[in-house]
Structures are given as C-alpha cells and as structure tokens.
C-alpha cells in the first residue's frame, strides 16, 4: 500500500468532512441571522419585546431620595434621607476599630475564602446573641437560642418571616403605624399578612400607648407583633421601661409572638446594654421570640450587609430543629452568607480592647447626633419659627419625625436642595454644625410659607 496515497486519501476525506461541517455551520449562522432580521426587528419601537408590558416601577421611598440627591448639581445640597451616619465634615465614617479589625484580618495569612456554612460564621453568631441577650442570659446558657448570620437587618427579617410563614400557625403580623417603609413589603413577600397597630400620636408627637394596648388586646391570639427594639424608625419615640413591661405582660398573656427588629442598638442611649433592655425583659420571662439584628448603623458596616436572626425557643431540642429548618429557608435563597463583614464583627466582639474601643466610637456617634438635635432646636428658636419644636430634642435615635407635611418637604427640596423622605423624617446623623443653619432656614421658610 502506498503510504502517501493512504495518507492523502485519508486527508482528503477528512478535508471533505471539515468542509461539509463548515458549510453546515455557516449555513446555520446565516439562517439564524436571516431569522433574526425577519422575525425580530430591533430598531424603533419596543413593541416586540416580551417585556414591553413592563411598567417603570417607582423609586424606593427611602433609597430613592439618595438617587434624586445624587442627580442634583447644587453645591449646597444636603441628604437627610437615608439613615446613614456622617461626620461633622459630612463624610461617611469608617470606624477606627473596623479599620483595625480589617488590618488584623488582612495580616492573618491563614484566612481563606471558603464558603461559610449555611448558617454563617459560628463565632459571629454566638457573639451576636451575647451582645443582645447579655453574657449571662439563661436562654444562651441553656442552648435555647439559634442564631444564623443573615444579610444585615433586612435579610434577617426576611429569613425570620419566611420561617414563620412556613412553620408558625399564625400568618398575621402586626407592624406599628408608622414604621420603617420596607417592613410591609418584606413581610408580605415572605408570605405573611400585614396589619398595623397604633403607635404614634401626631397630636402629642409621642406614643399612643393606649391605642397600642387596645390593638394588641384585640389581635387574634398567637399573632406576630413587630417591635422596634429601640430608637423607633421613623418616629424616634420609644416606650418607657414601665410601658415595655406592660407591653410584655400583654404580649405574653395573649400568646402573641414578638419579632424584634434591632437596627439601632447603641444609637438610642449610647449604651449597648441599655438599648438591649426591652429585648432582655422578654427573654427573661422564658418565652419565645424572634430577633433581627443589624450591624449597618452601630458598626457603620452598611455595605457589608451583616446581621443576624436569632430565635429564642423553649428548649434546646426545639432550637436545634428550628435551626435545621432555617437552613432550608436560606440555602435556596442565597446559599450561604458573605464572610468579610462577619469576620470584622467577630474580631471586634471577641477582643476586649477592640470591643471597648467600639463602645467609645459608638457613643461618640450617638452623642454627635444628640448635639445636632440641640443645635437644630436652638436654631429654630433663634429664628422664631412658629410651633413647638421640643420633639426634636425629645426623640431618640437617628431620626427626627419633624411633622412637616409632604408639600413642605417638596418645597424644601426644590428651594433649598434638602433631601428627606416625604413623611417629614430627617436623618439627624446626616447633619453637621455647618449645615444646621441651612436646614433651619429651610424649615422656617416651609412652615411660614407652605401650609
Ligand atoms: N430595620 C429598621 C427599623 C431600619 O430602619 C432599617 C434600615 C433596617 C431594618 C434595615 O437595615 P439593614 O441595612 O438591612 O441592616 N433603615 C435605613 C436604611 C434603609 O431604609 O435601608 C433607613 O430607614 O434609612
């Protein structure tokens, strides 16, 4: 056999196969191009899009304020919309203690980027439960608490709500009127049905305590009640310790299920322990509850999306079964949580020096907010602005619920480039000594010129 012939004949047969294949592929490509030209004209109208019926959604009432602010070219613009801490210079703040913790993490070459377990970083979970329930909490000692790391406060609320929708006999959750704007959406989408309870009395600018008690009293037995652990958003109005005790008794006697939202531990009083007191009162009675914790504000870890959901149960066995079900909620939602924020928090909470440093920085943030309250109150008084503005110094936490109406808010945004939510809430944490006069001028003008 002629080897050349053999090779050339095999070569020519493989060439043939390749050229058939090439013609075929080119043909397919050309056909598909022809199809796309004839069947899917792309220029001009969107009428052929399968999404052409999709209407533009509204911006978020809180985060949309920042979107509008970012588009404003004015040099005097001021964002008092979102609850995010700013320095006296108006800049976002990364806490020193967070920088230190991050440095420790970077220097530790043994750290890897493996997946965390579905429930998150174990150290972080233990330390988070301890931070809220206290070092000597019987619930922790008896292993009756399950804590899972979640995507900040919002993610913790969502996971808790989905768990309740699946495994709790009552699907109705009562939220305060008013409350954080995202609450009704989070709970509805998780499968709960949302009702409100009376909370704020616009006439007194204080708590409608009787309304709250009446509404809890007439709620169906077992209903879930959402409670802001401290520094109620948006009103800045919290029950007193005595009122909390009455609320606790009513909640327990009616078998209501408390779901605490703690987004501001340390921001109300400047003390982490004092702000945890209402939750601790409920844990001390041995009853069950849920808790969503966020480190966005009190550690300034907004974008790290770090928080925790705890469920306090009657026994260790129930807690461990509850945890197994939380894993089934989390795994198909986002599989497991991110590692960086949890590592920062754990590093700070487990080291006595870093922890102490954190409490000092936290207190400084809380104190600066309080001093802004006094400055704004004085500035309005100096201008003789009509009305009683003492609620500015009485309210607690990041926000002042001014009482300004949506028209007055729109006026302040248009004429003074001051951005805030339309319910009249302003983030005191976004103010500085330099911007207080501008805000006071705007409020004065709004109150005297817009009704
Ligand atoms: N609960 C409350 C009461 C709350 O005010 C916020 C955030 C959250 C939970 C959720 O925070 P997270 O970043 O998921 O840990 N409130 C501010 C920011 C926002 O609306 O997202 C705010 O009211 O401005």
Automatic annotation (TrEMBL):
Residues 77-443 form the Aminotransferase class I/classII large domain. It catalyses: L-aspartate + 2-oxoglutarate = oxaloacetate + L-glutamate. Keywords: Aminotransferase, Pyridoxal phosphate, Transferase. GO terms for molecular function: L-aspartate:2-oxoglutarate aminotransferase activity; pyridoxal phosphate binding. One of its GO terms (cellular component) is mitochondrion. InterPro entries: Aminotransferase_I/II_large, Asp_trans, NHTrfase_class1_PyrdxlP-BS, PyrdxlP-dep_Trfase, PyrdxlP-dep_Trfase_major, PyrdxlP-dep_Trfase_small. The keyword Transferase applies. GO terms for biological process: amino acid metabolic process. It holds the Pfam family Aminotran_1_2. It is an enzyme of class 2 (transferase). Its EC number is 2.6.1.1. SUPFAM superfamilies: PLP-dependent transferases. Its cofactor is pyridoxal 5'-phosphate. Homodimer. Belongs to the class-I pyridoxal-phosphate-dependent aminotransferase family. Important for the metabolism of amino acids and Krebs-cycle related organic acids. In plants, it is involved in nitrogen metabolism and in aspects of carbon and energy metabolism. PANTHER family: ASPARTATE AMINOTRANSFERASE (PTHR11879), ASPARTATE AMINOTRANSFERASE 3, CHLOROPLASTIC (PTHR11879:SF57). In eukaryotes there are cytoplasmic, mitochondrial and chloroplastic isozymes. This is Aspartate aminotransferase. It comes from Dovyalis caffra.
